[in-house]
Structure formats: C-alpha cells, structure tokens
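Long-time lurker, first post. I've been practising inverse folding by hand and with some scripts of my own, and I keep getting stuck on stretches where the structure tokens seem ambiguous. Below is the full token string for one chain I'm working on. Before anyone asks, I'm not after the true native sequence, just a reasonable design that respects the backbone. If someone could post their per-position residues I'd love to compare against what I wrote down in my notebook.
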C-alpha cells in the first residue's frame, strides 16, 4: 500500500481551499520544476516547514546550499494549511507514559526543547523579516465537561512541576471573564507559552529567506523513485533527476510508503479539518462573550481547536474523516458547521466561507522522529509531529542541519525524539486502526 487516503488528498493540482491562501499573493515568485539532470551535495524532499527550516539553517549557519524537491509548491502540505497554533506538543503519549518510558530528566529536557522551538519560530520570523500576523498569549485548554476539570488539574501539575511552564487554572466564571462562554466550556488551563500565526505567510517567508541564501527550490517536482548508486543518491522526478550525496526526508504526513523502504509502514497519517467563518461583528462576538485572541483547544481526545483571527473570522478545527474523498469531505464540512453552532450557539447561522483539510502524521512509537538512518548515515529525517509541527518542524530543521554537518551527534539527541523508526504491526490495516481509534475516542469523549 503506498497511500492511505483518497487520491484527492494528494492531488497538488486541486485548490487547497484554505482561508490562508487568500491572505498572500505568491504568483510572482513561482518556483520552477526540476528539468533535466542536476547534482548537489544535499537534497531535501519536502518543502514544508521542516524542509524549509532545514535548508535555511544549512545555508545560514553552515554555508550549505541545499536543493529542495517539493511535489506541490512550498508550504503546500500541512505547513501552509494548519491552524497556526505555534505551541508545544508534537507527541501522542500521555504524561504518565512519557515519564515511564523516558524518565524525568529526558521528559523535562523534551519540554525545554519544545519551549525553545516556540521561541525559535519567533526569533526566525523577526530575524528574517517574516510578517506572520502573530496573535495571542500562550494557549488555553478548555474542559468540555465539568468532569474534565480533574484532567486540567493534572495537566497543571505536570506542566508546572515537570515542564516548568507558567500556567494558571481558570474557573468557568474566570474563563467567561477572560475569554468566552459556551455550553461546552467548564473552566480552563491557561498555559503562557506560544502564540498563533498565519501559516502560509510563515512558510512562504521561510522559503524566501532560504532562497535569499542560495537554496534552490524545485516546485511541482514529485520524487517518484529513489536509487542509491555507490555513494550517490539519485532522486527521479517526472522531468529530471537530482543526484545528491546526502538526502533529508521532510515529507511528514505526505510520505508515500514507496519512497524508501526505511520509511514505509512506519507512519500513520490522519486528516485534520478546518472551517472559517466570515468576519464576525462586535455584537456577534459579545454574544459569546468573546474577548481573546489566544488559541484554544479542548480536553477531548478528538479535540476541537479554535481561535479568532485578526480580521474577526473564527477558525474552528477538528479531526478529519477516514478517507478524504470528495463525498466524505462534504459530510465533514457539515459536521463541523453543526458542531460550531452547538459550541457557540450565537454563531449558529453565521456563513462559513472556507473549508479545507490536510494530513498530520503519527508514528508507531507516538513520538516525533529526528535522526539519520543507522544503515545509511547519508539519509536524515525529521517527521511525525502528531498534529503539532509549526514549532517542532522549525526546531527539527535546525537540529537536522547540525546533525548533517557533524555539529551534533544523533546519540546526543533527547531520547524522546531519538527512537528507532518502528514499523506498524499489520501496517496494511492502518486505516482500520484509525477507524477504531475514532470510534473508541468518540465514546470516551462523550462520557460526561
Ligand atoms: C488541518 C491541519 C491543522 C494543523 N494545525 C496545526 C497547528 O495549529 N499547529 C501546529 O503546530 N501544527 C498543526 N498541524 C500540523 C503541522 O501543520 C505539521 O506538523 C507541519 O506542518 C509539518 O511540516 P512538514 O514540513 O514536516 O510537513 P508538510 O508541511 O506536510 O510538508 C511535507 C511536504 O512534502 C511534500 N512531499 C511529500 N512526498 C513528496 C515526494 N515524494 N516528492 C516531493 N515532495 C513530496 C508534500 O507535497 C508536502 O508539501 C496541522 C495540520 C493540519 C493538516
């Protein structure tokens, strides 16, 4: 099996349909496809935040001008279409599981690096002059039932003691005073780390910064086949071949199983979907008591994430469907419009202007993966951010650049990100794992 979803999910000729696309004009800066045969030292497959950050750090900090091969355009994948929550996360394990598997010291280290990752995004945007439309102060996790207050208290304890992040618990009344009210909001945890941004502006800004330093980006260039010929890698694309000494895999949820045997059956992509409304009036915002620009998510396993955008639109995201077919997308759009109206009754009839979805990436170890292949140390990778890759993808790019030039050794990486790439058992059944997880989590989330 090479892809797990409907072909429409991978079709780079179809419009993404995101609101973000309407906020930029990239027409005059189109990257050409690879045409003919070329040679370079370092090739990067994937032009999302990970690939672009890697290329930028290689060029800026180490003088290496990599060539990026991107099947769509820079930022076409999850990077240009996400919710714009720049925050910590990137892991699919509970805090208890993290502590049990990696111990206190490595768990603490992971959370310090997550904090660094968020700061790196802020620094890069400032130093590279990228206008990212940043908003908000940290993030707010909302209890979707009164019973989930306990979960917030546990989260508070872990984040203050182990991660050492500044946090405050808000009662339902405080939440209504500082942020909003909803029949599905019963108190919250305010974590004062992170901010939100416009992901297309960030991705295209990274691409421009990389190109300014000599990075070559080939757009509309799908790597269809990968051969090793002595010490050279040959990456075959529809109109040409790129020969490189070292290759970095930055394809995340869009990694096809056929790309390279070391990556096949190791990842489980999942759809995440977003809708945005037309700009809300002040009266409409007042009707939900809305007075925050901070990003919000809830205590569900299949969580909803939402935030108010700079122009007054409301962005509302959730898990996506099972196969991403056009028919399923119509019902997903309907589901999200209905749920938005239930959670924010005053906005029940507000026009939805945009709906889109994209792939996030889980790994069999439920941890992000950064490193190089044990049996071919000329192949590097960074992927599987469990739906949270703006900060971690940016940070991974800097780490991979350092690994490649030998300034950092894979054995020195935090144990959480330095796990073997494990195959999913019965990998052909991965989409059934997803179905099963959705049913189970829906049931758990619905228990009051
Ligand atoms: C709807 C949605 C909402 C999200 N919300 C958030 C959020 O609010 N905050 C957050 O931190 N994270 C969020 N995420 C996750 C985040 O967007 C990703 O973790 C992050 O963008 C991954 O970046 P990347 O560069 O590793 O991968 P991607 O951005 O997915 O890029 C991979 C690229 O590789 C290319 N590619 C794949 N195969 C090939 C090939 N064979 N040849 C050439 N190119 C290839 C693809 O075309 C793609 O552009 C969200 C994701 C989605 C889909």
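-- Answer (accepted) --
I ran through it position by position. Result:
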């Amino acid at each position: 099996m090479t892809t797990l979803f409907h072909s429409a999910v991978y079709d780079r000729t179809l419009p993404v349909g995101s609101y973000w696309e309407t906020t930029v004009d990239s027409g005059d800066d189109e990257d050409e496809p690879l045409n003919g045969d070329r040679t370079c030292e370092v090739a990067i497959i994937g032009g999302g935040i990970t690939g672009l950050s890697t290329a930028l750090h290689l060029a800026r900090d180490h003088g290496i001008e990599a060539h990026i091969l991107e099947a769509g355009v820079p930022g076409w994948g999850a990077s240009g279409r996400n919710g714009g929550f720049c925050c910590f996360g990137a892991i699919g394990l509970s805090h208890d599981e993290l502590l049990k598997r990696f111990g206190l010291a490595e768990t603490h280290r992971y959370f310090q690096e997550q904090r660094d990752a968020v700061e790196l995004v802020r620094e890069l945007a400032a130093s590279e002059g990228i206008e990212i439309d940043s908003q908000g102060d940290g993030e707010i996790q909302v209890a979707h039932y009164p019973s989930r207050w306990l979960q917030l208290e546990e989260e508070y304890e872990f984040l203050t003691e182990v991660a050492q992040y500044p946090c405050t618990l808000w009662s339902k009344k405080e939440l209504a005073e500082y942020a909003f009210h909803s029949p599905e909001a019963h108190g919250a945890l305010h974590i004062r780390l992170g901010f939100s941004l416009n992901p297309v502006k960030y991705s295209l800004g990274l691409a421009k910064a990389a190109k300014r330093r000599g990075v070559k980006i080939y757009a509309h260039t799908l790597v269809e086949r990968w051969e090793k010929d002595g010490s050279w890698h040959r990456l075959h694309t529809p109109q040409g071949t790129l020969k490189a000494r070292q290759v970095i895999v930055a394809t995340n949820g869009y990694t096809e199983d056929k790309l390279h045997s070391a990556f096949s059956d190791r990842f489980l992509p999942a759809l995440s979907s977003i809708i945005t409304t037309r700009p809300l009036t002040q009266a409409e915002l007042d009707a939900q008591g809305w007075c925050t620009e901070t990003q919000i998510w809830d205590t569900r396993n299949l969580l909803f994430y939402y935030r108010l955008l700079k122009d007054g639109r409301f962005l509302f995201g959730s898990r996506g469907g099972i196969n991403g077919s056009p028919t399923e997308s119509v019902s997903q759009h309907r589901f999200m419009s209905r749920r938005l109206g239930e959670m924010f009754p005053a906005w029940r009839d507000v026009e939805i202007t945009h709906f889109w979805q994209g792939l996030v990436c889980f790994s069999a170890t439920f941890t992000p993966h950064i490193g190089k292949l044990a049996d071919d140390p000329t192949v590097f990778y960074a992927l599987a951010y469990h739906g949270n890759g703006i900060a971690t993808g940016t940070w991974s790019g800097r780490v991979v650049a350092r690994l490649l030039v030998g300034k950092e050794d894979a054995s020195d990486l935090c144990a959480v990100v330095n796990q073997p790439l494990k195959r999913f058992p019965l990998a052909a059944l991965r989409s059934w794992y997803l179905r099963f997880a959705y049913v189970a989590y829906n049931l758990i989330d619905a228990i009051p």
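A couple of notes from the structure itself: The domain at 15-83+200-269+364-424 is CATH 3.50.50.60 (FAD/NAD(P)-binding domain). The longest strand covers residues 352-363. Happy to go over any region you disagree with.
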